Structure formats: structure tokens, C-alpha cells
Amino acid sequence: MLQRPDEILNEASQTVGDPLERDALGGEAELTGDRAIPRRLVVVSNRLGNIRDLSQAGGLAVGIGDALAERGGLWLGASAEYQDYAASDEPLIRLERVGKIETAALTLPYEEYSLYYNGYANSTLWPLFHYRLDLVNHRAEFLHAYRQINARFAKALAGLLSGNDDLVWVHDYHLIPLAAQLRRLGVRNRIGFFLHIPFPPPDLFVATPDHEELIDDLLQYDVVGFQTETDVGNFRRSVQAANSITFDINGSAEMNGRTLLSRCFPIGIDVDSIARMANEAAEDVQIDSMRRQILGLKQIIGVDRLDYSKGLPGRMQAFARLLERHPEHERAATYLQIASPTREEVSAYADIRAQLEATAGAVNGRYADLAWTPIRYIHRAVSRSRLAGLLRASQVGLVTPLRDGMNLVAKEYIAAQDEADPGVLVLSRFAGAAEELAESLIVNPYAVDEVADAIAKALAMPLEERIARHSALLKRITRNDAAEWRRSFLATLAGEN
Ligand code: ADQ
């Protein structure tokens, strides 16, 4: 059923009768861990996750879903259905409740959504924020649609807020202008923003003609969170350059009687759930692993969305270089790349797919024989549990993005390992995760020989060294896990940190 926000609020107040349930959805203080976190949580992201089965979601959806599952609240995102707004400009929303979580799916006009999502978000901001000026596409209609869609989100959200006490947590580059649009509608709530992708250095950032507006938009939040110290530094320098606003040692800046906090909140994973899934690997994963053991084959694994920021062609070239420089790995190592399809309407993504298929074909054409396929390339998404099993069954985890906000696969690889016989993570210095995961083999993904040599080192690493590196990494990802990420962000947003 599609509803307008005023109808929803009336209905919600009629249906939420049970006092326990009312508490769960906000209003009263609630206990999370050993601290009280008051106020209802309202999360906004471009898309909603599947709250009926969060175990099958990756990355962002898990982080948000768990925060809501823990304390209850509302999640607003775009609906998978589209709506022609010709007759009216009022937001149309589908409400659903599963346990303590209420979702609000906002129906949007298809053309406008496409110009916002494939256009400004993924053809302008994504390449710009990943330092790829060569791929940035600026078009006036992209920007216009981006602002329109954000205005629609703001209007819908303003109607869903239950008062000034709701804590609003906005996610990612699709929704940068949301706080500014909400402020224009008179919303005075605390609003936080978390950027899941990198923030570029000022010299690159100013290459977008809209840089001043984007900074002004970000200044409307109360808390702006980033994955790494590098990103925080880049953001603060851009703010300083544009507005002469300076941040104190705690990351606070005063402006117009308000305080803006900018800090780093490195995202983590649910370590236990990955470890559990890895332990209970599916039968076909076990059979594949046993077959390799019998053949004496070691497996190198890569798992990514098929995105040009992930450095996939270079990674395949590095594997080919491994075979050239270290021929003892011919017929002794195999590289499994799982690359799920993504954003296929954007032309840069079709290009990367063609490039990757050509590279995999060329390497296999050169080296494969009847008994050995050097590269196994799977172009589809794999279930979370199967993925965890595959990560555990691989002696090397190869994570070599050219630029990445964090990269959760790096952390998932560590969590999935057998502590008594762990594999080795080879990690790009340009992944946000490299700031935390110093005991992995850190490489420059542009230096193909260096990556090839790091893979060789990983394949030959003695057990004692593998255990020492892995246990240090596991400790760190356990301490900085998904629960700690959301606890620290929300405590900061609530003004407790
Ligand atoms: P992504 O760019 O999507 O995320 P990443 O952090 O690696 O990158 O998260 C991907 C998630 O999807 C992981 O949980 C992974 O297991 C899963 N996944 C990837 N390929 C898959 C496949 N073929 N089948 C099944 N699952 C697959 C963005 C930023 C990152 C940041 C995250 C979270 O770009 O830098 O770490 O958000 O903030």
C-alpha cells in the first residue's frame, strides 16, 4: 500500500499500541550494551536492505540492519518500484515493519532516479571520489536530478520524523545534500552523515564545478564521518580552502552558533558470523577444496563487485606475472576471482567487464592445460555462506583496489580463516583497510611485479609467521567490529562522545 507521510503517521500512532513496542521504536531510553542510548534512530540510505534476511546481505546493509535490529527504528530508502509524479508532487511511501524495524520505501520517478543514480552519483561523484578524474562525467541534468531526488527524500523524511529528538543517520554519497534540504524544511534534529567511500584531496575535489555546494551541504550536518584519517584530512582541508573554517584537535568546527564534528569511524564486520559461516562451508566448497588438496594446488581468491576501482585487470596481470617470475607456481596455484555484476547501465562498467574477460582469457590461453585452469572467473554474486567457505579454503586473499573507502572483503578474509592454519592477506595500500591491517602484505597495486612477488611470499610463508600475522589482524578486526563502528558513530551523534 502506498501512503503519504501524514497518513502514515496517523496510522502508525494507531497501530503502535504495545508499550514495549513503542519503546523499541524510540521515544524512551533503551539499553544497548551497558549504556543508555535515548532517541529513535532514523536511518536513510539510497536503497533499503532486505531486513527479512540480513544474513544474506553484504557490507552496508549488514551495518545498518544490525544497528536497527539492536535498538529498533526507522529506515528510509528508495523503493525498487517507480512512480510517475505527473499528477502530484507528494512523496509516496510504502511502510513495512519487521520486529523492531520499520522500513519506508520511497517511490520515485524512474527517469529522474536514473539521472541521479547512474548519472550524478555513479558517473560524477563515484569516479571523482575514487580519484578518477578521467572517468568523471559532468552533465547539468545529472546535478539537477540529484538535487531533486534529495529534495524528495527530505520531504518524505520530514513527514516521517516523530519530533526533534529522532537521531537521523544518513549514508553515503547519494545523499550529501539531504541535511541542507531538511534544514530548509525546518528540521532541527541532530543529523549525521557517514561517507562509505574515500574523500578526495582538495586538488582533485575542486575539479568538480559543484565543489563549493557539496561542501556547504556537508556543513549542514552535525557529524560527518569518514572511513580513514586520510579522508578526514582531505575533507577538513577542502572545508578550510572553501570557507576558511578550521577544525580543532577534536575535529570540531564552530559556525553560525553550531558545531560540526568531523571524525574517522572505520567500518567493521560481524567477525563471529563470518567465522561461523566459514566453519560450516557448503558441501560443494568442501569438495572443491579437497580436490585441490589432492592435486597439491593452492588457491588465491579475489571477491569484488565488478568495479573499476577494485583494480581487477591489474590483479589478473599480477597473477600472470607471478607465473612468469616464479614458475614453480605453474600448476601449483590457481586464482579464483568472483566478481558480481554492478551498475551495468554505466558505460565505464561495461568497459571494465570486457577488459577483465579479455585478460582472463589471455592468461588462461597462454598457461592452461588439461589438468589446470590458472584463472577461474565467476561473474555473479555468491551467497554469504558459500563466500565465507571459499575465503577459508584459500591460502591467499588478494585485495588490490586502486582506491577503496575501506574494503570489507579484506576483513572478511581474515575472519574466515582457520586460526591454526591461516591464509595470508595481500592488501593494497590504497584500500582504507590498509590503515588498520598493517600485518597483511601491503602492496602498491600499480606495481605489478611488487604484487606478483607479494603473492609468491604469501604462498611460501611459514606457518609460524602466518599465525603471528593473522592473530594480530584478527584481534584488531574483532576490536573494531561492526558493533563498535555503529556504537561510536551513534554515541558521537547523540553527543555522548
Ligand atoms: P563496496 O564497494 O561494495 O562497498 P566492500 O567493502 O568490499 O565494497 O563490500 C562489498 C560487500 O559485498 C562485502 O561484504 C562482500 O563480501 C560482498 N560481495 C562482494 N562481491 C560479492 C560477490 N560476488 N558475491 C557475494 N557477495 C559479494 C562500499 C565501499 C567500501 C566500503 C563499504 C562499506 O566502496 O570501500 O568498505 O562500502 O562501508
Plain-language structure description:
Strand 2 and strand 3 (35-37) form a beta hairpin. The protein is α/β, with parallel strands linked by helices and 497 residues long. It is built from 18 helices and 18 strands. The chain has two domains: 2-268 and 482-493, Rossmann fold (3-Layer(aba) Sandwich); 271-479, 3-Layer(aba) Sandwich (Rossmann fold). A ten-stranded mixed sheet has the order 1-6-7-5-4-8-9-10-12-11, with helices on both faces. Adenosine-5'-diphosphate-glucose binds next to helix 3, strand 13, strand 14 and helix 15.
Architecture (CATH level 2) name of the largest domain: 3-Layer(aba) Sandwich
Strand content: 15-25%
- CATH H level, superfamily name of the largest domain: Glycogen Phosphorylase B
User: For the report, how would you describe the main beta sheet?
Assistant: 10 strands, mixed
DSSP summary, beta strand count: 18
Biggest sheet: strand arrangement: 1-6-7-5-4-8-9-10-12-11
The residue fraction in helices comes out at 40-55%
- Which ligands, by name, code or SMILES, are bound? adenosine-5'-diphosphate-glucose
Note poorly predicted spans: 4-34
Q: Rough shape?
A: globular
Number of separate domains:
2
Could you please say which CATH topology of the largest domain applies here? Rossmann fold
Average pLDDT across residues?
89
Task: Kindly name the structural category.
Answer: alpha/beta
The span between the termini is: 40 Å
CATH class of the largest domain: Alpha Beta
Task: Specify Rg, calculated over alpha carbons.
Answer: 23 Å
How many individual helices? Answer: 18
